Amino acid sequence: MISQFSTVKGFLFLALFLLYLNFNSFAQPNYPRDSKEAELVYSDLVNFMDAYRELATAKDTIQVLQSLYFDQGSEGLKEFIKRHQLTPELLKDAIKSNPERYALIPGFLDNIGNVEEQFQSLMLNYGEVMPNAMYPPTYLLVGANRGIGQASMVGQLITLTRVVDDMDILQKLITHELSHFQQVMTMGGQKYVSLYSAPDNMLGLCLREGGAEFITSLVLGEITQTSALEYLEDDEGNLKEKFLEDLKTQKKDYWLWASINQKSHPKLLGYAVGYKICKHYYDSSSDRDKALQDILLMSDDKTFIESSGYFTE
User: Is-above-0.85 flag for pTM?
Assistant: First the structure.
């Protein structure tokens, strides 16, 4: 999960509760196993543009957004609304506060043919790295100007306004979230969700996010949190020590989502640490197919971190 939001703790509690319901309320899905059949769903962008054009002359903004965007929503948008409590009022305020971001959506939609081609190429590359992957739909959505990407049992939920003008970031975000879906299918929904509810879950969360980052790097050559990785590698010895010390007391704020709004260092450094652990594990393995499955399964976090050799090199 990658997100940017202001009230981190309250928002995260709600998101995790809904995540628990989502991954424990569905039977085993039956999505395609062939990367050529992966689907990019952008009907919500089309519906939003109908509403956006109508807003130029409409007197009742809320009614327009409700009837033309919310009421016409895809399964992905419905899931996003449920998770994040998106309302026409919130969307109206976001459009008013950040008009320049929403003004980029028409151009993105005009170029959707090229976006689809890049998506199809991305999925083919993903299939080469992850030959046993499952491909739920990827939904492109319009939210309240928060950069949120999440895996769900209905598919990847990607809000567009923060990445509408950067296809590289969009592709990394799609890949990261699709990789979380593979983790769910490998370890099972109950274990996946339990990482959030466990009292001492810092290591598991960093490894889960780092695993998704590592797969993203295999597919695209980069992770989503490039600034965090650069910062980590510039002072890796000291940051390794800090990570291990914070792990003893489960101090997550420096490493995970509570770091998003601070300015003293890059956010989400735990993603970069998790990536480095997974990379070391993979690079040192004589059976890389098995290593990749181990990264998805993550059956024993402490054994995995020791086997990686990252903190003992």
Answer: yes
